[in-house]
Amino acid sequence: MAQDAIQVDLSGRTAYVTGGSRGIAAAIATALARNGAQVAFNFSPEADAAAGKAQAAEQLLAELGAEGCAIPADMSDPAAARSAAEAALDRLGQVDILVLSASVQVHRPILETSMDDVDRQLRMNIASNIATLQAIVPPMRRSGYGRIISIGSVQEQVPSQEMPVYSMTKSALENLVRNLAVENAPYGITANNIAPGLIQTDRNAFRRTDMAVWNRLARNANPMGRAGQPENVVGAALFLASDAASFVTGTTIHVTGGSHIARNMNDLINTETANARQAG
Asked: Taking all residues of the chain, what is their mean pLDDT, rounded to a whole number?
């Protein structure tokens, strides 16, 4: 994993990262530990195995070193999510930095989405985050310090025809963050959201079965004409977790290569022309 682009002092701080064993969350957990924080993360052994990453939690623990701990949890169950958060509090003593990253995507148009698919996304992407917050925020308030960082999506702003319910849940989470910011500001707690665009992770590995299709998707995904990497999200997370962001709350940082910006057909044509020039 590449060295972080920025460094902050998180010495003496503790962090809990949900869904932390792979992808963006794993990159953030590693960066938090590298910058001095003691880090706990939860993970789903079943989900990791299904993604072909059965050893992901072990590998992340090796990255985190002695300061890391892993908590298995089924985050589609809000009760299990709360228990995992309580376990993190027990192991860390307190949680100064909470990164809400665990989520599930169902790739189906709205008319083909079953109620089971809807329920699973609502439970994991919204209800389990609320259960986690209900466990973590009261101790934060008592300590007079906290950093809440949700990992949202560009789809909060740019709708997806193939993941409409997922997009809806991410918009709801961003709205919740704004409410958390207002409600918890008097307690020294900030709450912010990071909205990544197309980031190359194992979650979208299925799109790289045909690399020509992936390359075309990446070229057209944003004005930069490429997919991001998990490490590209790390800088925003470190900033929001640090004292440098003590006056930043209720905001969203877009890490999208510009894909959150509305573009018309001329913009897309210009992007294709620029990509063709670079290729030539």
From this structure: 90
